[in-house]
User: Fold this.
Amino acid sequence: MYAYDTADAQPFTDTTDAIAHFVETPTCVGAYLDDQDVLHLIAPYGVSDLVNLQCRLIPIFSAQTYSDIYHDRIAKKQWASRWPLLHIIDPEA
Assistant:
């Protein structure tokens, strides 16, 4: 799921918990169909950042520890050039 060290982290309890650990809030969204073909949305931090083109570090990660990872991921994915209207929020600001 990601390339940073989580050796000291507890295993994820379920899919929602795993999605809640994606680095940026707009990536913390998933969906699935249940047995009755009803679509369910998984969005531990809501969808406000996603639909408002805002990107921020998830609240359970400290800026001191994860700021570099956050910035590296955004740079490698070239989000600023791919989505010029995206507002990337600096976790250390």
